Amino acid sequence: MPIINNRKSDKSHLLIPTGLIFITWVVLMVAWPSEHYTRKPYSEFIQQVEAGDVAKATIDDQEIRYELRTAPGTLATRKDSSAKNILITRRLPEDPELAQILRTNRVEHSATVPSPFNGLWTVLSWVGIPLLFLVLWSKFTGNQASGLGMLGIGDSHAKAYSAGDTGVTFNDVAGIDEAKAELQEIVDFLKHAEKYVKLGAKIPKGVLLVGPPGTGKTLLARAIAGEAGVPFFSISGSEFIEMFVGVGAARVRGLFEQAKQQAPCIVFIDELDALGKSRAANSIGGNDEREQTLNQLLSEMDGFAANTGVILLSATNRPEVLDPALLRPGRFDRQIVVDRPDKIGRHSILLVHVRQVQLAADVDLLKIAAQTPGFAGADLANLINEAALLAARHNQESVTMADFGEAIERLLAGLEKKSRVLNELEKETVAYHEVGHAIVGSLMPGAGTIEKISIVPRGVAALGYTLQLPQEDRFLMVEDELRGQIAILLGGRSAEELIMGKVSTGASDDIQKATDLADRYVSIYGMSKQLGPMAFDRSANQFLGGYSPRRPLSPQVEATIDRGIKNLIDHAHHAAQEILAHNEPLLRQMASILQEQEILEGQELHAYLQQVQKPPLLDKWLQTGELEVNYSINAQLPRTSNSHNQSSYEYSYS
Predict the structure, then answer these.
(1) Exposure check for the chain: N or C terminus, fewer CB within 10 A?
(2) C-alpha dihedral sign at 469, 471, 477, 480
């Protein structure tokens, strides 16, 4: 990718030569050939002198270097001398007889005066030159303002793209037309800033993209830079945070300094929540480094004017945890929601991602879009890739509609487990369970169409599944539809009770989902007649989901909530039993065929489900939520244990 020519990169061509010089110097200092002589004790040196074996000696303040004769009375010639004839010994501090001994034995001797520069050269060679190298490296690569540039700790880690070289334009972004329209103004300002300045308009300093994961927030930011043809700096919020206090603030300063030099440009900070969490949450024992980094970001956003040409884009899927100071006008002036696409948006996204895919004639992208409600852009891209992989695995020349169908099942239910073989009792139980889901679901309002029933194990825990797809995108659900969803979830367990006379562990996931939905029905949606329109749970993350802590409640209200949840589940359970008992012959027939074929789908499945008859009490229950039940709904709820047998998880299904 092209890199922007900024002040830091102007000197980057000197980094490689400087590094090579330093490495060469180290190699020379370590590997430079030097003379190595054998050391002898001083006493042995005196013995050799008295024996006439020493030809000459050189004496300094610490050592004596002497040369042996090659033969008695014969000096070694320069050509024949070798390191084995030259020896070294450490002289005694005080030996007044040494000179007399050398003269007596006719040893040629001399003395050397140590140079004051020898020690200085040693210090310079091993300390000065490395220090000089570090200073030069700091000058070329470091952030001098941070004081940490010598080791590169305070450097900005932002990826820089030259003008328009992000490789993405608005043609590569689909399914989020509203967000694109909002950002067109940013692009137009970067291209034609003079008309805004002429009218006195101020472009927003910061734009915050919020939405679920995988909806294309980062892709949209890169497309803006590609459309406007301006430099683009991209960095993640977590890259500012280090173990050293002050490093994050230095990186923020360095990033904005580079951006101002390249204006007009776009600075994109992904996952802003990693950097900009509310400081109130860290009031006790807070993270000083994180707070300093956030404070520096706030200061930098206040430090440049609205029309300087630096646009700050950020993305997050947790806007509720951001510090309020970030979201005030003058910093992130505009928040744009990048939500999951609807059916038309999914179709547009599929058209973008299939450009390089060889499609068969039977592929209907509009039908695929209808079968993938709730899929984000990243999910759809993964779906197309999975379908292409399946086609390649089967040595096909193009991707067929069957490949897309199999890819959807793999993403929703998991990989098919052909090695997991069920015994006859398990197979029968799973068949009745899944058919129970389908029969109850065929009568519930807003439940969608039953597309497939399978007892082929998939994924980690699914021994069978019922694929039910909505006919259209839904954004609201009413009371009877929520009650119907709970009844569908309990339809599998109800079928086991009706036919097998006992229940299995396979309904555990259905019961968990039904209980959670009933809890939201009572404590969040305010649909309970006993409690009325009151919310007892705090709002959870709107994009990532999860559960939030419940408000402080009195024991009486807690008990009322528990009774309301149990009342709702018991009536839905009874409604599912009534439906299945009213259609018991059809239930047995469909389960028998499912055990033989393992899969029911298409026209055959729809023909069976059209025979489902509605029991007389169903409409009343859907309207009022009340049915006559044969057991008490006010019994004390037993406490459940968190422990479970791991092997039971292998046999659970939904």
Answers:
(1) N
(2) negative
Strand partners, 90: 63
CATH H superfamily, domain 424-651:
Peptidase M41 (1.20.58.760)
Q: Which of 413, 421, 489 is nearest to 452 (CA)?
A: 413
The answer for residues whose C-beta is within 8 angstroms of residue 254's C-beta and 6 or more apart is 143, 145, 146, 154, 155, 156
Do 309 and 190 form a contact (C-beta atoms < 8 A)? yes
Q: Cα–chain-centroid distance for residue 492?
A: 36
Which tokens in the block code for residue 271?
């996952």
Of the CA atoms within 13 Å of residue 314, those in its CB half-sphere come to 29
Give the pLDDT confidence of 580-625 residue by residue, as tens digits.
999 999 999 999 999 998 888 889 999 999 999 999 888 888 888 7
Cβ count near 605 (within 10 Å):
21
Q: Which CATH architecture has domain 159-337?
A: 3-Layer(aba) Sandwich (3.40)
Radius of gyration of the chain, Cα coordinates, nearest whole angstrom: 40
Tokens 């993964």 identify what position?
382
What count of other Cβ atoms lies within 10 Å of the Cβ of residue 240?
26
Select from 212, 325, 349 the least CA-distant residue to 276: 325
**DSSP SS3 for 335:** strand
- 159 forms beta bridges with 234
Tell me the per-residue pLDDT of 206-252, one tens digit each, with 9 for 90 and over. Answer: 889 998 888 888 888 888 888 888 888 888 888 777 666 677 788 88
| The pair of three-digit structure tokens given for residue 30, joined into one six-digit string | 């370590």
Residues 6+ apart with CB under 8 A from 381: 349, 353
CATH top class, domain 343-413: mainly alpha
Task: List, by residue number, the catalytic residues.
Answer: 434
Scanning the structure block, which residue is given the tokens 């024991």?
Answer: 555
CATH of 38-106, one of 3.90.1300.10, 3.90.1150.10, 3.30.1360.70, 3.30.720.210: 3.30.720.210
- How many other CB atoms are there within 10 angstroms of residue 547's CB atom? 12
Distance CA 351, CA 552 (A): 50
Q: Could you give the strand order of the β-sheet that contains 465-469, starting from the edge strand earlier in sequence?
A: 465-469, 449-454, 599-601
Q: What is the pTM of this model?
A: 0.67
First vs last Cα of the chain: how many Å apart? Answer: 47
